[in-house]
Design a protein that fits this description.
This protein is an alpha+beta fold. The protein has one domain: 2-Layer Sandwich (Alpha-Beta Plaits). Helices cover 23% and strands 36% of the residues. Strands 1-5-3-10-7-9-8-6 form an eight-stranded antiparallel β-barrel. A hairpin with an 8-residue loop joins β3 and β4. The chain is globular, with a radius of gyration of 16 Å.
Length: 194
């Protein structure tokens, strides 16, 4: 599994209805994209638990060929044409878990990035993150969770989808899920990825 995201931060007075319309008319185009485990079309709106307006989709790829086909094909070029070329963040998958409500339609996502301190053994940090992901998946209303790592920057990504507003003590940015494309969700390996 590979996790991938790009964040397009928009002006404070940007009409987020434009992004909502974009997703409503184009989101279905990836509903059968080969190699895509899932894509959560995420937004944050300034003044609604967010300091910024942002379009920030997050992808979990079941196959690197799918990720490459998207990045070098017309899908990502549409983003580039409309918003300029954003930096694409990517992480190596560590674990994926279906949640306690796997068939529910996700309404909220939480994404949390944390740096692994140089004083902590990488394997210990990864194991703790995987255990936290499993605990999160077991919470009521959790649709799915994923944990991934960028070993270049030693950054962990915790990502979860929810059928409701998740508990307040869960750290990270809360995003609204506008659409979920999940053609190869069943091909995402469950549990630890090695």
């Amino acid at each position: 599994m590979h996790a991938m995201s790009y964040e397009i931060t928009l002006p404070a007075d940007y009409d987020m209805g434009i992004i909502r319309e974009r997703v409503a008319t184009r989101g279905h185009l990836l509903d059968d994209f080969p190699g895509l485990g899932l894509k959560a079309y995420l937004i944050r709106e300034r003044g609604r638990d967010s300091p910024v307006n942002q379009y920030a989709p997050l992808y979990l790829w079941s196959a690197p060929e799918g990720m490459n086909a998207f990045l070098w094909g017309p899908g990502f070029q549409g983003v580039v044409d409309d918003f300029g070329r954003p930096s694409v963040q990517h992480w190596t998958g560590l674990s994926y878990q279906e949640g306690s409500a796997p068939t529910a339609l996700p309404r909220t996502a939480v994404r949390h990035r944390e740096t692994v301190p140089g004083t902590v053994a990488p394997a210990r940090a990864v194991q703790a993150a995987i255990e936290e992901g499993a605990r999160t998946a077991a919470r009521p209303g959790a649709v799915a969770t994923a944990v991934a790592v960028d070993p270049r920057h030693w950054e962990l990504l915790h990502f979860s989808l929810w059928d409701h507003e998740p508990p307040g003590q869960l750290p990270g940015d809360r995003c609204e899920v506008l659409h979920l494309s999940a053609p190869d969700r069943d091909r995402l390996a469950r549990g630890r990825q090695w």
